User: What shape does this take?
Amino acid sequence: MIRQFGPSEALFIVTAVRWTVALTLIAFAGGGIVGLGVALARTAPAAWVRVAATGYIQLFQGTPLLMQLFLVFFGAAMFGGSVDPLVAAAVALTLNGAAFLGEIWRGCIEAIPKGQWEAATALALRFPARMRTVVLPQAARIAVAPTVGYLVQLLKATSLASIIGFVELTRAGQIMNNATFRPFLVFGLVAVIYFILCWPLSWFSRRLEARFGSVPP
Amino acid sequence: MHYTFQFGDVWAAWPDLLWGTWLTIQLSASAMALGLVVAIAGALGKTMGPRPLRWAIDAYIEAIRNTPFLVQIFLIFFGLPSIGLRLDSNQAALVAMVVNVGAYGIEIVRAGIDNIQRGQIEAGIALGLRPLQIFRHIILFPALQTIYPALTSQFILLMLGSSVVSTISAQELTGAANDLQSRTFRSFEIYIVVTAIYLALSMAFSGTFAAIHRAVFVREERG
Assistant: This one.
């Protein structure tokens, strides 16, 4: 018996958006915190810290997010029984997001003119104070636009959580497609919802780039 | 908690994984080549085409860049048959990858073309070059040279993203891994090995791109 695609089916898909948004926000917060650490490590004075951070970035940018997701999901299941798909997806997206955000923010940190670093050093500020009071406040300005741009990537990446069975927007679409067998309608609707979420962010990111994109003189 | 790693089943299946690796290379390389064609054609249309064409290209770029690749695959594989276009999973995977990378590629190539100064083109006209020569030597080649790093990192993202086409059971590395997983249940061991293969693949692709860069662009500069 094939179900008709009606308002309640559409509502099921639309309400699943909250899990896409929740996962995006969790991963963005997690990836932001870890990513800041990665960015600082990439620009740290100690060589071994920089090497470790570079290795982390290359590992996570050089392998598919889907594999990272599987490794967290099956790896956690192996060591501690079953794991909630939401937790596995949040952990994988956090680790992955940290690599990308870390690399984006490293660029922003390094874009701050050398004179600023030298002035801070001349004022006898050590690395933490130099970063916190001189470099990061200026780097944050340049970082806003690419960070919002990355948020779009992250939001789209949460769709992969559907593959390990987390019911967010894409998975809700798959469920409804299996029930109603109206793939064009169902995935068209899913795509439109993603577009409504992502497009304003993309637009905002471009606006921000026009405003804050350049390094202040 | 004690867990004994058993890689035996994974090593035993090395021909399957090797074959999967080869299919991923084939699929990705084809998508890159076709994607480059779409990118160049689209960038040309966007810089020189009539206004309706420019709008259409913009709509395509925005639609692709603001929706997940996974949903694009589902629309192409499950959705297109309902309007009469039936593709098998490998064809659908390739089409989805080309459509996806094309949208990013257009913006990248266009940025390169925008970077060409008008004076260069005028110099070409003054030298009596034909339009096609101007396009090839003064616009396209320098543009590609400028955006080469951005384009190739987009290509590597494409290769990594190709693991997602396993969801429509297209034949490639992740698909081979999933088959093996359902036969042996050695999930973690399989995916750690396959992750390592992907890492090697992305290194191999960046090495190849660097070699192409040396062969094509550096020689042109000297020549």
Notes: Chain A touches chain B at residues 59, 62-68, 70-71, 74-75, 77-80, 152, 156-157, 159-160, 162-163, 170, 173-174, 177, 182-184, 187-188, 190-191, 194-195, 198-199, 202 (CB under 8 Å). The CA atoms of residues 108 and 139 of chain A lie 5 Å apart. The domain at 7-212 of chain A is CATH 1.10.3720.10 (MetI-like fold). The two ends of chain A are 67 Å apart (CA to CA).
